[in-house]
Specification:
Elements (H helix, E strand, L loop, with lengths): L2 E2 L21 H18 L9 E12 L2 E12 L3 E5 L6 H7 L10 E9 L2 E2 L7 H7 E4 L10 H11 L5 H14 L3 H4 L12 H13 L5 E5 L7 H14 L4 E5 L3 H7 L2 E6 L2 E7 H4 L6 H7 L5
Parallel strand pairs: 4-9, 4-10, 7-8, 8-9
Antiparallel strand pairs: 1-5, 2-3, 2-5, 5-6, 10-11
Helix pairs in contact: 1-9, 4-5, 4-7, 5-7, 7-8
Amino acid sequence: MLVSTKSEQTQTSSTVAEPISGAPSASSEHVVNQSVAANARQNSNPVSADTPIKMTAGNVDLFYGPKQALKKVNAAFPEKTITALIGPSGCGKSTFLRCLNRMNDLIEGCKITGDVQLDGENIYARGVDVVQLRQRVGMVFQKPNPFPMSIWDNIAYGPRLRGIRQKNALNEIVEDSLQNAALWNEVKDDLKKSALGLSGGQQQRLCIARALATKPEVVLMDEPCSALDPISTLKIEELMRELRSQYTIVIVTHNMQQAARCSDQTAFFLLGELVEMDSSSKMFTDPSDKRTEDYITGRFG
């Protein structure tokens, strides 16, 4: 299978950051390990072997022109779980995330080989409706990007595209989506006000609500907390844990503590390769690959 795209190219680096100067002492590494491991043991839910698999990736290679950004990536995402993708900047984790709902189609010169399946169906097969796919696999970006319109119109935008026109039905969707995003009580009296007037944390929860309004089955989040303050970050993390009972969530994060607090399984990327993927409790206490251990203890990244 080969997919070529047609729009503007986005620059992507596949290099690993240099090791940080002044490598941590054995005692500081121990603190990092203990802190992250404690979060992983406390918050990660073990994924049962009987849990249905929602999405899979098989031997996925991705090229930006002649440059290879992903190399034979194989991964499985169980239903109603949170998977964290971690790794140094430029390692391919965000590129891989965009493969899961074909956002890389928008990058000129991008070629993908391999297989990505949603409920057993290849999302790159001929005839797949990409708009419908992105309704089933929603995405929340790194920086909040509310539309320059009212809070109500932001949430109703997707359902309207799907042909829903009845005001009562739209009102119900708006309320349910904002409730699910833990934002309803903060904005229920200001639904006609511009979404651009919300705080950064509120804008990000609005974007999550907007993604939920199309009734997705999978929610992708690309560093959703990187631009937020600690209080807003904790609200988003709490929200993710609540949404896990309804959605399959895949999140890219640079924050080891966040991955340990929120995810059920973790995947470590390096130089475009998926080095290791396992339960978060195991990844942060007893990783199988030395490169994984070096990264999560701060020896590089």
